Amino acid sequence: MFDYKLLSALAAVVEQAGFERGAQVLGVSQSAISQRIKLLEARIGQPVLVRATPPTPTEIGRRLLNHVQQVRLLERDLQSQVPALDEEGMPERLRIALNADSLATWWAQAVSDFCADQHLLLDLVVEDQTVGLKRMRAGEVAACVCASERPVAGARSLLLGAMRYRALASPAFIARHFPHGVQADQVARTPALVFGPDDFLQHRYLASLGVDGGFQHHLCPSSEGFIRLTEAGLGWGLVPELQVRDQLRAGILVELLPDKPIDVPLYWHHWRSGGQLLGLLTEHLARATGQLLVPF
């Protein structure tokens, strides 16, 4: 039989990226949470954590974290049926991984009413859309939004739609680098903006133009900062259309090659045994994103 105090210690250390913050969340000392992890490892006969910065789960640790995530959601279903079991009366927290551009654009509008109706708090983990699924695989989140269609074992995926990105730059940048008009083969020879090392959207865009090879670029791991740098003329970048409609109308940003957008599909991944809450959220997102994302 599982000792859920020990499993909760494991979840807190991984989710809070350290023993000290994990202990604070559980309201215990750092020594106490460390002892719980050691006791868990003694009982199962193998390590559940790699003691690094931040601590990461081992393979068996990931399996235990997946179990904890699903148990939390199933407990919520039981508490709704037997209110006396909910001793603290605290709102549910749901840990979700999603990409920064979704967080900066459509996500809040899609989930605000649902969170209010369901008395739900969100614990959001920001990852690039190409790698967000790793958080589910590691057992750190109950659901994620990412560009990968194939779910991890024990999970389901649902296509929500696509985010449309356009290659944009400031008028001053275009005048400086493309005085005779923008040509596809010239784009790779001008400075670009890239969100981070896992962001290959610019590579895909250039490949779609028939341009291969590397290109010079700034790294900017902030959706808002990405827009500010583009407006300031530091480089061209692929920006969500949802985020810059006002700038496009005002001429603050200009599309490099009109009518050559690139669409990135977004999939909602969630545990099959995630209980009623995840099921309701999945149904809600399927309806809400139909008005916010483009078909794919």
UniProtKB/TrEMBL annotation:
<dbReference type="InterPro" id="IPR017685">
    <property type="entry name" value="ArgP"/>
</dbReference>
<comment type="similarity">
    <text>Belongs to the LysR transcriptional regulatory family.</text>
</comment>
<protein>
    <recommendedName>
        <fullName>HTH-type transcriptional regulator ArgP</fullName>
    </recommendedName>
</protein>
<keyword id="KW-0238">DNA-binding</keyword>
<dbReference type="GO" id="GO:0003700">
    <property type="term" value="F:DNA-binding transcription factor activity"/>
</dbReference>
<dbReference type="InterPro" id="IPR005119">
    <property type="entry name" value="LysR_subst-bd"/>
</dbReference>
<dbReference type="InterPro" id="IPR036388">
    <property type="entry name" value="WH-like_DNA-bd_sf"/>
</dbReference>
<dbReference type="GO" id="GO:0003677">
    <property type="term" value="F:DNA binding"/>
</dbReference>
<dbReference type="InterPro" id="IPR036390">
    <property type="entry name" value="WH_DNA-bd_sf"/>
</dbReference>
<dbReference type="InterPro" id="IPR050176">
    <property type="entry name" value="LTTR"/>
</dbReference>
<keyword id="KW-0805">Transcription regulation</keyword>
<feature type="domain" description="HTH lysR-type">
    <location>
        <begin position="2"/>
        <end position="58"/>
    </location>
</feature>
<dbReference type="InterPro" id="IPR023490">
    <property type="entry name" value="ArgP_gammaproteobact"/>
</dbReference>
<comment type="subunit">
    <text>Homodimer.</text>
</comment>
<dbReference type="InterPro" id="IPR000847">
    <property type="entry name" value="LysR_HTH_N"/>
</dbReference>
<comment type="function">
    <text>Controls the transcription of genes involved in arginine and lysine metabolism.</text>
</comment>
<keyword id="KW-0804">Transcription</keyword>
<dbReference type="Pfam" id="PF00126">
    <property type="entry name" value="HTH_1"/>
</dbReference>
<dbReference type="Pfam" id="PF03466">
    <property type="entry name" value="LysR_substrate"/>
</dbReference>
